[in-house]
Structures are given as C-alpha cells and as structure tokens.
Amino acid sequence: MIGQKKKDLTPHEKYLLGVRKNKIAILSWQIGILVAFIGFWELFTAVGWLDPFFMSSPSRIITTFIDLCADGSFFYHIGVTLSECLIGFSISMVLGSVIAILLWLSPLAKRISEPYLVVLNALPKIALGPLIIIWVGSGMKAIVLMAVLICIIVTIMSVLEGLCATAPDKLLLLRSMGASRLQQLRYAVLPSALPTFMSVIKINVGLAWVGTIMGEYLVSGAGLGYLIVYGGQVFKTDLVMTATVTLCILAGGMYALTALADKIIRNKQAHKSRGKKKNRATQNVN
Question: What are phi and psi of 179, to 5 degrees?
Fold first, then answer.
C-alpha cells in the first residue's frame, strides 16, 4: 500500500493511511514538545535566566542519577517505592472489585452504601495519616494502607457503575430464561463491564503512585518519596528533581503496560465478535 499512488488506493486504504499519518503526527508533536521543554530548560539555566539551585537542570539531573546509581542505593529506593505501589494497587483492585460485585448482587446494600461511598470519596485521605500510623505503625504497612485508601473507593464506585450500566435488554432476556442473579453477573454483566474495569485500572495506576508518595511523605525511611522529602529539607533540588523524574518514568511505564494489556484484550474481544458474526452468517446461508 505504501508503494501505491494515493489515487489508486481504495477508500478503506485511504482511511487507514490517514489514521496512520494522524498517529505519526501526534507522536511527533509529543516527542517534539518534550525535547523542546528539556532543551529550553537546559538553555535557560545555562544562561542564568533560571537559577539551577532552585530549578536544577537536565544535565544536573543526569549527573545526580549517575552518582546515585554508582553506589546502588538509588535502585534500592526505586524497589521500595515500586513494591509499595504495586501492593497497594493490587489490593485496591481486587478488594474494590469484589465489594462492587457484592453491592451489585444486593441492590438494597447498594442503595444503603451510596451516601457513605460519596462521603468517603470526598474525604481527604491525608487527614487520616496520624490515625494510619497509630493503626498499623510507621512502616511499609502504613504506606500501602494510604495507597489502598486513596484507590479503593474510586475502584468500588467506578466498577459498580460499570456493572450497573449493563444493557437492561440483556438482563431481561436472562431473567425471562430463569437465570439467577449470579448467572446474570457471569454471562452479561461482567463481560459488559470489562471496558470499565480496564479504565479503572488505568485510573488506579496514577492514584496508587499518589497514595504511595503521600504515605512516604508521612512515614518512610526509604523510597523515592523519602528522597524527595530529604532533598527538600537539605535544599538538594537536584536530588528532588531526579527522584521526581524517576517517578514520572515509572508511572508512565506502568500506565503503558496497562494500556497495552487493554489494547490486547479489546483486540481479542473484537476478533471473537467478528468470529461469531461469521458463524451466524454461515449458519444463515446453510
């Protein structure tokens, strides 16, 4: 298709070519903006328009990163924060999804819990910091609990909304066939809510990192949040910026993995859907 002239392409091929060009243009702009931002940042600090003591600079961040990696301590801090984030994220997704399913199975419990979920979602979780330390102590448990508290209410509300958004016609058909509530959940509700579930995973990737760093701000002796707090206390902005940039890279990588998983699942669903349509068409012909 690339070697063909544009006028020789079919409408479908022209559409695909336009989509590909649009993706390339968007990616080019994204990379260009990032490169320009880094370049101007380095330039402005080099000419003195920005004070590197307060703003650091890309070159100083790279130097600090190399120095931290030289003794291996930086990888230890990355491992601590990453493990806390993954544990909090996993607990939130599993526990929140289970609670949402239980609430869907019991409409009465759903109606009773709705105002409490709204209030808990609006509550600033950082206000519970002192209580978290009293409940579980000042260690990894407190940081994981902070991440869970930030993610779990969003998980419950979002997954529950996705479960309730199932087409009423599908549920009516299953009920007319004598399907139980659990059977409706298995055959109609969960498949319909899968896109919502994947969207919640993407949202919780960011929230889990927020909760983890908030927890490390409160109580930690290691981790990227600890480095940020320590660097701010001793006015080492290079250390603060290096830890912050590392957080951005880790969070972006984690989000990219979830987006890739979402794309794979959607492609499989689309392939199954096309296969079912072909089978139905074949049966109709026969």
Answer: -70, 140
List own/partner pairs for 185-191 with CB under 8 A and 24 or more apart. 185/101, 185/104, 185/105, 189/104, 189/163, 190/163
Count the alpha carbons within 13 Å of 175 in the hemisphere toward its beta carbon.
8
Q: How far apart are CA 280 and CA 286, in angstroms?
A: 10
The full DSSP string for 170-183 is HHHHHHHTT--HHH
Comparing CA positions, the residue from 86, 201, 194 lying closest to residue 155 is 201
**8 A C-beta contact, residue 166 and residue 189:** yes
Q: Count the neighbouring beta carbons within 10 Å of the beta carbon of residue 6.
A: 8
CB atoms near residue 177 (< 10 Å): 8
Residue 270 has pLDDT above 80, yes or no: no
What is the distance between the alpha carbons of residues 231 and 219, in angstroms, rounded to a whole number? 15
The stretch 208-220 carries a mean pLDDT of: 89
Question: How does residue 98 score in pLDDT terms, banded at 50, 70 and 90?
Answer: very high
How far is residue 216's CA from residue 237's CA, in Å, rounded to a whole number?
18
**What's the distance, Cα to Cα, between the start and end of the chain in Å?**
36
Q: What would the two tokens of residue 273 be?
A: 């859907």
**Closest of 75, 95, 107, 203 to residue 144, by C-alpha:** 95
C-alpha 226, offset from chain centre: 22
pLDDT at position 132 is 87
Cα-only R_g, the chain: 25
